[in-house]
Amino acid sequence: MTDYTGQVAFITGGASGAGFGQATVFAEAGCKIVIADIRRAAVDEATVRLRAQGVTAHGIHLDVTDRAAYARAADEVERVFGKPPELLFNTAGVNTFGPVEKSTYEDFDWLVGVNFWGVVNGMMTFVPRMIAAGRGGYIVTTSSMGGFMGSAAAAIYSAAKAAVINLMESYRLALEKYGIGVSVLCPANIRSNIAEATRVRPAHLSHTGYVVNEEVIESLRRIHSHGLDPVVLARRTKEAMEARQLYIIPYPEQKEPLVEHFKQIVDSVLPLEADPEGARQRTEALQNWIKDRQAITSRGKSD
Ligand SMILES: NC(=O)c1ccc[n+]([C@@H]2O[C@H](COP(=O)([O-])OP(=O)(O)OC[C@H]3O[C@@H](n4cnc5c(N)ncnc54)[C@H](O)[C@@H]3O)[C@@H](O)[C@H]2O)c1
Predict the structure, then answer these.
(1) What stretch of H or E contains 10?
(2) 147 near 162, Cβ under 8 Å?
(3) Catalytic annotation, residues
(4) Which residues line ligand 1 (CB under 6 A)?
(5) What pLDDT is recorded for position 19?
(6) 259 phi and psi, to 5 degrees?
(7) In the chain, how many domains are there?
(8) Whose alpha carbon is nearest atom 31 of ligand 1?
(9) Which atom of ligand 1 is nearest to the CA of 15?
(10) Do the Cβ atoms of 107 and 210 come closer than 8 Å?
(11) Is residue 300 in some structural domain?
(12) In a domain, 121, yes or no
């Protein structure tokens, strides 16, 4: 069991759904909670709810796509708590569905902006501060099962979530030496308010190629009403963090589709007998390049 007492957890999208579940569970574990969310009233409501349970909670109105605001939010955390967070949850996310061929640039800009650049901004803001604080820590970024597979109706969302998975694999390798763990949470369905996401879509990115009306929103509400409870999801996330798992996928029904998907990829690789000499040469070249890079890095010419 990890001791979280007094640790600061910064949770984007913390006012609702998965983020509020994380706030609840990590507060129970002894953390001080920062709720960072684009919906100002929801931030206030979430912090009031947490404080009523005796939790030390601080709310910040933040649009994760706004880099300057993100830096100010990080300064505010250090002012209030005297240190950067030990735990970062990149949980804010938005979705909207429609045929990819009808997408507008605004559909791309909004979905990639929040789901990918929002995560990049979280990492760029906090990772240097966490390293400088020298206390280690943990980062959990919420991607999606959609990040493993393309989808004709959620193409942009899935592409952004795929990028997030890949980025977290890289950060995990890079941050291990600082004692900072990294996991990527890939939910399939959460009992959350994501059906309402288009309500926080900025006016300047409102031009869409998709049909978004009350009927569409209601059908999404129906799916998500059967999703995993956010508190249960956060408990599973905490267990997986403590087991230092890279991927967190607490959805048993997803095993078979994932096996099928990755089998298709692995099966498309040529067997070694198809080009043994070429494979040997390329592998050797790669190993030599890695050795060169290590030598260059150790001479301090590059990092
Ligand atoms: N609901 C699902 O079935 C599902 C499935 C897979 C992945 N996810 C992912 O889970 C994460 C949490 O979503 P949820 O389902 O709890 O939805 P939710 O709508 O209940 O919570 C998301 C929160 O993010 C906030 N937010 C939206 N845009 C923001 C921005 N630009 N800056 C800051 N905050 C912003 C919203 O105000 C909201 O409070 C998201 O990353 C989502 O993509 C959800």
Answers:
(1) strand 8-12
(2) yes
(3) 157
(4) 12-13, 15-19, 37-39, 42, 62-65, 91-95, 114, 118, 142, 144, 187, 189-190, 192-194, 197, 200, 224, 227
(5) 98
(6) -60, -45
(7) 1
(8) 63
(9) 39
(10) yes
(11) no
(12) yes
